[in-house]
Design goal:
Blueprint lengths: L1 E6 L2 E3 L7 H5 L2 E8 L7 H15 L6 H11 L6 E8 L16 E7 L9 E5 L19 H12 L4 E5 L5 E4 L3 E6 L2 E5 L9 H9 L3 E3 L3 H5 L3 E6 L3 E8 L2 E2 L4 H11 L11
Parallel strand pairs: 6-7, 6-13, 10-11
Antiparallel strand pairs: 1-2, 1-5, 3-4, 4-5, 7-8, 9-10, 9-12, 12-13, 13-14
Length: about 270
């Protein structure tokens, strides 16, 4: 990993020990797919970051400076993953935020995760997502629910964990949104009380003319096809959820074709 750390405009050698993200998860992050040195969905990621910063009251660093530093990590024109982390910065002990915070921000370069050689096996996690509308949709740094759920999935031998809200409705996987085709229409869980409104999800909502609504687990289990998606890995078909199994479905192939028109990293090779 190649990373650069800043406090406002000043470059640092390390994250300060009193940074509020270390103590309280008081920050936001974005994880972006890089294609040949560029971030095709930069605007969409920055828009979500700005929304999160407004919700939490965290000042953002200068976008042009952040983008320049991020670009310099990929000066070789390579592919990869860019992670941007913005915290409220340093503060005194205690929950009360500092009156005039100076954000800490980090840009880091990572490799592209391996593409699974098969469709995914999901495990329904006992760890559920708590209701907190103020935090719903944004990518804040409080991720213990996902950590616990992913541990469950690992113990179950599954590829990913399916997470429900407190009412038992499906919200998504630990690190991806979910789409299911039901009665010939793509449906994705509404992100109202919890969950992340993914950038890839937003692109596919429009491209697939999908519907957002509450999605009970039983409807996912009876769907004609299911896939997960995120901005780093694109579309990942689901093959098994509990006792339910799915074979390959033309609707997922069509969705992948649509996504390939929206991001060059997810180009579909001709058959």
């Amino acid at each position: 990993m190649n990373a650069r750390i800043f406090r406002g405009e000043i470059r640092l050698d390390a994250i300060p020990a009193n940074d509020r993200c270390l103590a309280y998860g008081d920050g936001l992050f974005e994880t972006m797919r890089v294609h040949r040195g560029e971030v095709p969905w930069w605007r969409e990621h920055w828009t979500r970051l700005r929304l999160g910063a407004e919700r939490l009251g965290i000042p953002l660093p200068d976008e042009a400076r952040v983008r320049a530093e991020a670009t310099s990590l990929f000066v070789d024109g390579g592919d990869g993953v860019l992670k941007l982390l913005v915290t409220r910065g340093a503060g005194e002990r205690g929950y009360a935020p500092p009156p005039d915070p100076v954000p800490t921000w980090i840009v880091s370069r990572h490799g592209v995760p391996a593409t699974p050689g098969r469709s995914l096996h999901l495990h329904v996690c006992g760890t559920r997502l708590a209701s907190q509308p103020t935090l719903a949709g944004i990518k804040h740094c409080n991720r213990l629910e996902q950590v616990l759920a992913r541990s469950e999935a690992e113990r179950a031998g599954a590829d990913e964990g399916l997470m429900l809200d407190m009412a038992g409705n499906v919200i998504g996987a630990t690190a991806a949104n979910l789409f299911a085709t039901i009665d010939g229409c793509w449906v994705t869980p509404a992100i109202v009380d919890c969950g992340i409104a993914g950038v890839c999800r937003a692109k596919l909502l429009s491209a697939l003319d999908a519907v957002e609504r509450a999605l009970p687990l039983a409807e996912v289990e009876s769907a004609d096809a299911v896939f997960l998606c995120n901005a780093v890995r694109g579309i990942l078909p689901v093959a098994r959820l509990g006792a339910r199994e799915w074979s390959s479905h033309p609707a997922i192939a069509a969705a992948r074709t649509e996504l390939s028109r929206l991001h060059p990293s997810f180009l579909v090779e001709p058959a």
